[in-house]
Amino acid sequence: MAVCSVCSQSLSDSQVVEINGEAYKSCPNCSDKNGVHIFYRYEDFGMRDMGDGRNIVQSWCPSCRSDENPSLEVEFTC
């Protein structure tokens, strides 16, 4: 299991932080590729309908889910 070179937390687990009322989430795939948590705006991840009435945030950023070039601006790293 790879860990962040800055915070020593698992890179395969999304991290969610709030700064000045704005939520940010790390993408496990981007983070693993870079060795540090890569954060984007939480709202940019999109939601997933679980089919049972629950909607949860997507794990990976849109670019990683579609295997395309980065479409989101990195807000910050760990």
Q: Please, could you describe this protein's structure?
A:
The longest helix is centred in the middle third of the chain and has 7 residues, at 28-34. It is built from two helices and six strands; from the N terminus they run ββαβββαβ. By secondary structure, the protein is of the alpha+beta class. A hairpin with a 2-residue loop joins strand 1 and strand 2. Helix content is 15%, strand content 27%. The model has no long low-confidence stretch (mean pLDDT 92). The strands form two sheets. It has a four-stranded antiparallel sheet. Strands 4-5 form a two-stranded antiparallel ribbon.
Query: Percent range for helical residues?
Result: 10-25%
Q: What is the distance, rounded to the nearest whole angstrom, between the alpha carbons of the first and last residues?
A: 17 Å
- Provide the spatial order of strands within the biggest beta sheet: 1-2-3-6
User: Roughly how many Å is the radius of gyration?
Assistant: 13 Å
Oligomer: single chain
Chain-averaged pLDDT: 92
Number of E-type strands: 6
Strand proportion, as a percent range, falls in 25-35%
Structural class estimated from helices and strands: alpha+beta
Largest sheet: 4 strands, antiparallel
Order of helices and strands: EEHEEEHE
What overall geometry do the principal axes of the alpha carbons give? globular
Structure annotation, total helices: 2
Unreliable residue stretches: none
